[in-house]
Sequence to fold (124 residues):
Amino acid sequence: MSDQELLSKPCTRIQIQMKAKEWLDRSNTPLFAQVNELRKNNPNIEDILAKTTVKMTLWIGKEDHLLYQYQTWIRMPIPAAGFMDQETMFRFFKYNDPGIKVKEPADIEKYIKNPKADQSKDQG
Fold:
């Protein structure tokens, strides 16, 4: 794709587009384990995946190589109801801002494993 300025930064745009079936067939991530299990027992899923388009676009800074924007668009058939379109976009900025405090993964993981954990102690 053509380059584009984003947040006053020159960016390279990269776009990947493929069918969901191809994406799942090529992927080895455990994130798709449940979908792949459904595929084994439901032949209709294969048809839906073959007709589902996934398109991802990245905006990467030409000078600093940081990710400034990420966009995903999915077009999926809904049996007997047409198609569903879903678009998600994230814009990233304030890299290295001293006001941003990121917790260690272990501190976040305990709340993922136990969502009812008392988080009030950690806020402040």
User: Anything to note?
Assistant: The radius of gyration is 19 Å. The first strand starts at residue 4 and ends at 6. The CA atoms of residues 35 and 120 lie 35 Å apart. The chain is about 25% helix and 35% strand.
